[in-house]
From TrEMBL:
PANTHER family, A to Z: OS04G0182200 PROTEIN (PTHR10209:SF428), OXIDOREDUCTASE, 2OG-FE II OXYGENASE FAMILY PROTEIN (PTHR10209)
Protein keywords: Iron, Metal-binding, Oxidoreductase
UniProt cross-references to PROSITE patterns, sorted A to Z: FE2OG_OXY (PS51471)
Entry-linked InterPro entries: DIOX_N, IPNS-like_FE2OG_OXY, IPNS-like_sf, Oxoglu/Fe-dep_dioxygenase_dom
Protein name in UniProt: Fe2OG dioxygenase domain-containing protein
Fe2OG dioxygenase domain segment(s): 212-312
Cited Pfam families: 2OG-FeII_Oxy (PF03171), DIOX_N (PF14226)
Transmembrane residue ranges: none
Gene3D superfamilies for the chain: B-lactam Antibiotic, Isopenicillin N Synthase, Chain
SUPFAM superfamilies the UniProt entry points to: Clavaminate synthase-like
Family: Belongs to the iron/ascorbate-dependent oxidoreductase family.
GO MF terms held by the record: dioxygenase activity; metal ion binding
Top-level taxonomic group: Eukaryota
Organism: Canna indica (Indian-shot)
Length: 364
C-alpha cells in the first residue's frame, strides 16, 4: 500500500524544533494568519475520536452542572457541600469567596496583554528551564508529548520563593501580585474547609505544608482554525494538592463525570476548584482527583489562570506524604505508600498529559 506523500515528507522533530525556535507560541501562528493547524498539533484519528470529538455536541453532557458552593454563608453547610461535591465530582465552583471581581478581571486582562503584547518581551522570557521562577513557553513537554496542546503559558512561581517584582512582565506584574495575595487568602480558607470535611482540625492540611507552594499558569488559548482535530489541553488530573482556576467567558473546560464529559459553564465572579492527585492520596481516596481537559475552539482567545498549591517547588524537601493516619482504620487500610513529593512529580511528568494516572504507580 502506498504511503501518503505528506507522511513521507513529514519530519516531526524538525517541525517541532522550527516551531520552538520562533519563541512566538501558538499565538504567533494565529497572528501570522494560519488557516490550518500545523501537523505537529493534529491529533491522530484514534485519539481525535475521544479527545477532539469533545467539540461534537452529542458527546458532551450539557445538562449537568458542577456543584456551586457559597463560602459566604453557614460554615457547616459549606463544609458539607464541599464534601459532597468532592465525593461526586472532584470539582466545584465557589462564590462568596471574598475576592474582588475587579482583581479577577484585571488579572485576566493582564495575562491577555502579555500574550498579545511585544514579541521581543515574550521571547526574552521563553524557556524550558524548570528552575526559573518566571518563564513563557508553548507546551512544557513540547518534545515529549505525543501531540502538543493548542495553548501558550506564562509560568510564575509565586511561593515559597517568589520572584523579584522586576522578573514579572511589565504588562501584568502588579495585577498578578495582587491576584496572588487573594488566592493565598482563599487557599487558606479552602484548606481549612477541606480539613474539616475530612473530620480533622481546620489547620491540619496547612500544617502539613499543603499550602506551602504556589504557581500560576497563565494560559492563552488562541482561536483554533480547525478545532475538531486539535486539543486545548489534553485530558489529565492535576499533580498537586489543590487547584484554583479563574477562567474567562469563553468556556471549553470539561470534567469527566460518570464516564461522560461535562462542560464547565463559566459563572461570572465564580472560581473553579479541584482536588489534585496528592490530596487524593493523603486523604486515602476520601477525596477524588478527576480527569479534565480543555477543548480547542474557533472562538477566542480563551484566557485562564490556574493556581496550583503543592510542595514540589522545594525539590530538596525530605517530608514524606502518605495517607493521613487519622483517616486509617481496620475498615479503611492505607491505599498508598509514603512518598517524597518530588518522586511523585517525576513519575507524573514522565507520563505526560495522557490520562494515565501517576497515583496508581504508588498504590499498595
Amino acid at each position: 500500500m502506498a504511503v501518503p506523500i505528506s507522511l513521507v515528507d513529514y519530519d516531526r522533530t524538525a517541525e517541532l524544533k522550527a516551531f520552538d525556535e520562533t519563541k512566538a507560541g501558538v499565538q504567533g501562528l494565529v497572528a501570522g494568519g494560519a488557516t490550518k493547524v500545523p501537523q505537529i498539533f493534529v491529533l491522530p484519528p484514534k485519539v481525535r475520536d475521544t479527545d477532539a470529538g469533545a467539540n461534537q455536541e452529542a458527546e458532551v453532557e450539557k445538562r449537568l452542572r458542577l456543584p456551586l458552593v457559597d463560602l459566604d454563608g453557614d460554615r457547616a453547610e459549606a463544609v458539607e457541600a464541599i464534601r459532597r461535591a468532592i465525593g461526586e465530582w472532584g470539582f466545584f465552583q465557589v462564590v462568596g469567596h471574598g475576592m474582588p471581581l475587579r482583581a479577577m478581571e484585571a488579572a485576566l486582562e493582564g495575562v491577555r496583554s502579555f500574550h498579545e503584547g511585544n514579541a521581543g518581551a515574550k521571547a526574552a522570557l521563553y524557556s524550558r528551564d524548570a528552575r526559573r521562577a518566571v518563564m513563557y513557553s508553548c507546551n512544557f513537554g513540547l518534545y515529549q508529548v505525543p501531540v502538543p496542546n493548542w495553548r501558550d503559558t506564562l509560568y510564575c512561581r509565586m511561593a515559597p520563593d517568589p520572584p523579584k517584582p522586576e522578573e514579572l512582565p511589565d504588562s501584568c506584574r502588579e495585577v498578578l501580585m495582587e491576584y496572588t495575595d487573594h488566592v493565598n487568602e482563599l487557599g487558606k480558607t479552602l484548606f481549612e474547609l477541606l480539613s474539616e470535611a475530612l473530620g480533622l482540625n481546620p489547620k491540619y492540611l496547612e500544617d502539613m505544608d499543603c499550602k506551602q507552594g504556589l504557581i500560576l499558569l497563565c494560559h492563552y488559548y488562541p482561536p483554533c482554525p480547525e478545532p475538531d482535530i486539535a486539543i486545548g489541553t489534553s485530558k489529565h488530573s492535576d499533580s498537586g494538592f489543590l487547584t484554583v482556576l479563574l477562567q474567562d467567558h469563553i468556556g471549553g473546560l470539561q470534567v469527566l463525570h460518570q464516564d461522560k464529559w461535562v462542560e464547565v459553564l463559566p459563572i461570572p465572579g465564580a472560581l473553579v476548584i479541584n482536588i489534585g492527585d496528592l490530596l487524593q492520596m493523603i486523604s486515602n481516596d476520601k477525596f477524588r482527583s478527576v480527569e479534565h481537559r480543555v477543548v480547542a475552539k474557533k472562538e477566542g482567545p480563551r484566557i485562564s489562570i490556574a493556581c496550583f498549591f503543592s510542595t514540589h517547588f522545594h525539590p530538596c524537601s525530605t517530608r514524606l506524604y502518605g495517607p493521613i493516619k487519622e483517616l486509617i482504620s481496620g475498615e479503611s487500610p492505607p491505599l498508598y505508600r509514603e512518598i517524597l513529593v518530588r518522586d511523585y512529580v517525576a513519575e507524573y511528568y514522565s507520563r505526560g498529559l495522557d490520562g494515565r494516572a501517576a497515583k496508581s504507580h504508588f498504590r499498595l
